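Researcher: For the record, we're logging two predictions in this thread. I'll number them. Prediction 1 follows.
Model: Prediction 1, sequence and structure:
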Amino acid sequence: MKTNVFPLETERFYHIYNRGINGGELFFEEQNYFYFLKLLTEKVKPVAKIYSYCLMKNHFHILVRINSEGEIRSGFPDKNDIEIEKIISRQFSNTFNSYSQAINKRFGRTGKLFELPFRRKKIITEQQLVNCILYINKNPAKHKIESDFFKYPYSSIENILSKNNFFVESKEVIDLFDDEINLRIALKNFGV
């Protein structure tokens, strides 16, 4: 039994991650990355704020903070009789299921795309939060996909540094490092 599977609680940070079944590919062409981000916007953002993400060829990482119960319930007024943890989990599952169905249809494949269930780590301390942000955004360098991880097109670092985006909580991320310069230094110095 997998030990890193448990209900997602409101107002908590989580590192959500998964990989393709048997380590296989998740993203086959450029538009797949953008479609996955679109699904995160449609299905995850109603229940969570996104702080960082990185989409790699065969796996992904997302750092989220689950919204308050009140925020979630206001977005799902027809689900007042459903436990909040089930609403949250369903939104993540719907994201991954919708993506899998689209990929299977697009490429004429069948079967699972992701390993099940999706994995999560609860972030408890501010240091864990900082390390998770650095780890996720430096993931392309870790896997030797892009040595200049600032240029990797499918991670949140560009969104965070642009400060004018609706997708990630860039101001909150930068504030954890005091400013953009310290964030850049921390990323460069973070060992992967």
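Researcher: Logged. Prediction 2.
Model: Prediction 2, sequence and structure:
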Amino acid sequence: MSGPTEPSPHQSAQLAAQPSGRTVDPRGPRFAAWVTTAVLVAVLVTGWWPLLAAQAVVFALGAFAGPRHSPYSVLYRVLVAPRLAPTDEREDVAPLRFAQGVGFGFAVVGVLGYASGLVALGVVATAFALAAAFLNAAFGFCLGCEAYLLLNRLSIINKKVGTAR
């Protein structure tokens, strides 16, 4: 009879990727990514930073209140989801909230850049947010979600190494 063993690094990474208990239909975040992509393209084409400020508010709602409270999520639930077949596929909310927080950070930097006259900073920050939104919309690859999972795995590995000393 063997005693309890610690999980391997691979098992720890899998445990870190376990859902938080709150999940969403993954088609909702992809819809939101398409809307976000359109908004960010409009900002880059027009340079109208108040639209970027509005997008920052959308990101903040998704990050701090949760994706369910984002205006794009409401649009998806009211206008799009009723027209789609139900799905059993679910996605954990925690990585989505982190990704929205990252988007919020880039949007705030972009607004500060545009508003202070550092247009190049505004353009670059907006372009980074656009690249991430487009990757999610077009390919289902959530860059912020992947960063969340990677950071989560690294923190478990670092905690394990720290306790082994």
